[in-house]
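Appendix B, record 7
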Amino acid sequence: MHIKHRMENLIENKTLFTEKKWEQKDKDKNFHRKKALVYCEKQFGLVDGKTAAALVRHSEIYCIVGIIDSSLAGKDAGEELGEGKNGVPIFSDLNDALESLSYTPDCYIYGKAPLETFISKKERLLILEAMINGMDIINGLHEFFTQDPELSHIAALNGVQIKDIRKPPPLKDLHLFTGKISEVNVPVITVLGTDCACGKMTTAVELNETLNNLGVKSILVATGQTSLMQGAKYGVTTDALISQFLVGEVESSVVQAFRNESPDIILVEGQSAISHPAFLSSIGILKGSMPDGVILQHPPARKFRCDFPDLVMPTPESEIKLIETISKTKVIAITLSHEGMNEQEVLQITEDYELQLGLPTTDVLSNGCQKLVQALSDQFPKLKHKIKLENSKFFLNKQGKRNDRLEGIDEFVHA
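Structure tokens (predicted):
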């Protein structure tokens, strides 16, 4: 964004605030997003409910008007994530939601990310019910509903659409690695992790938002279904690709973002972990993005890999060594998932890691992205010049809100 454009936005926002129209601007933004219910039965706030949690936190496409989870019915979604009341109700089932709302939402999102491939018969009936009520279906599973004759037929009868987020592009549109990643002359930072569902996407989204608010043009490249649901303009669901095209698709997404947007920095979302024996995506992401730096996300309280109780969690040290052995990049910062930890434990782990690893460490959900921005500024001086002094107030304002939200919390929920 040019300086003139930024100044125009600042002036506009100041005027709106003075005239008490800021709230109306926010409502107008929500008006243009599709209203959506998110199905997350018995998983909201847990590992397999990460899609629902992410959409509650951020989405440029959908305005989340409710969560379906009978185990938490009547509660507030924001409070269940340990982030303060946000007005998103949790309903017991679809009927409860439709009876409680004064309208029928535009979309029904399947908001769980289970290891299993196919949905249960009960969940299938709920999808049919949602379509009969005129709701589009947003599906992030490997099971493609558009290829299901019954679901497609019911969708056509009711004039609704089914969107399979994980469905890969046609074969003719897939890309092999070309080496064109060498054209990208701005920093590329990939957010990798030590396990699945440990907050990589959350950190990438938070950092992307922070950088843009500071006047740095940052583009996020998505590599999973949830970040595409949130509105990422570039990217592909890497775990649904034929392996031969994995590296090339990541490269192509980064190159497109660079060519089309002229960004100051490109952030690439990671998947799973380089060391995880069950998944390949992170290796393809690391190869395809050829990052200038890596931010490593780690859940210190987690003893075993999620969904794999026989696999002990790696240490940050071992993951850093692996990343820096198979690539030319360096890990420049550590970010934490605070699941199963209280505020004091997060602070202690932060101090320990910074001392042991010599890397800036933070939990972006509780302490923000200031350390990450500083690390990027130290590594890439051109970014430092992009950050305007007056925009540094953003850190103070956001940190104040985080502190208010954390007051009195003894234990954090899953990131």
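Remarks on this record: The chain has two domains: 32-164, 172-406. The two ends are 31 Å apart (CA to CA).
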